[in-house]
Amino acid sequence: MASVVGNWGGGNVWRVTSGEFSSNAYFCEAQVEGGGILIDAGLDGETIDAELSEHGLRPHAVYCTHGHFDHTGSASHFQKKYGSAVFVPKADLKLMKASNFLLMAMKLKHKVVLPEATLVEPGHVADIAGTPLRYLPAPGHTPGSCIIEFGNAWFTGDTLYARGVGLSHLPGEDHAVLKQTILGYWQDLTPERTIYPGHGNAADGESVRTGNAALLNFLGLAAS
């Protein structure tokens, strides 16, 4: 079910959680054709599309935090149906192309059709009706993982969760680099910034920094 889980500073943030391998897809309302943009496309495009359509929403474009199948898998659905442009970190192209191999290895029945993606580098900025959408470099979970900054919202993919740590043990994951990435953004996790992760609930930055015990342990910051 599509539900409003926050506001990025210029419109509602909707979340749809669905698919054989459950993950969050976020729709950010904005003054663009279709009513907004989609951040991470999930794996079950038809369900996500149907849920959003009930509210008159369709994505003008799709921005993916990284190349794993549960974040890019349905991008082609929206591209084919609505002509939505799709953006994926360049360094994760190989991972995106390996989607069906990974699905098979994980014994999941879903098959992915790859989108015609625009490949972006860290630091890429898109203009969404006057508001910049920024790709912030966040390697570790995957080589090309990025945090997508839009208004006061950070869409963190599997780099940062409100609770727990996104360790997949899939090819390309580097725990040392992930630690370095998160620590580099540590002071930016403020009460004013909302974290929208690829799995689980959203939370303000300060509660992530102070209340995520598993993360503090992973980073070596837990009180002894």
Can you tell me about this structure?
The chain has 224 residues and is an alpha/beta fold. Helix content is 25%, strand content 29%. It contains eight helices and 13 strands. The strands form two sheets. Strands 1-2-3-4-5-6-7 form a seven-stranded mixed beta sheet. The chain has a six-stranded mixed beta sheet with strand order 8-9-10-11-12-13. The longest helix is centred in the C-terminal third of the chain and has 10 residues, at 175-184. The model has no long low-confidence stretch (mean pLDDT 95).
Helix content: 25-40%
Order of strands across the main sheet: 1-2-3-4-5-6-7
What is the number of strand segments?
13
Question: Sheet with the most strands?
Answer: 7 strands, mixed
Number of helices: 8
Structure summary:
This protein has 224 residues and is an alpha/beta fold. Helices cover 25% and strands 29% of the residues. The protein has eight helices and 13 strands.
Supply the key terms.
single chain, 224 residues, alpha/beta, 7-stranded mixed β-sheet, 6-stranded mixed β-sheet, 8 helices, 13 strands
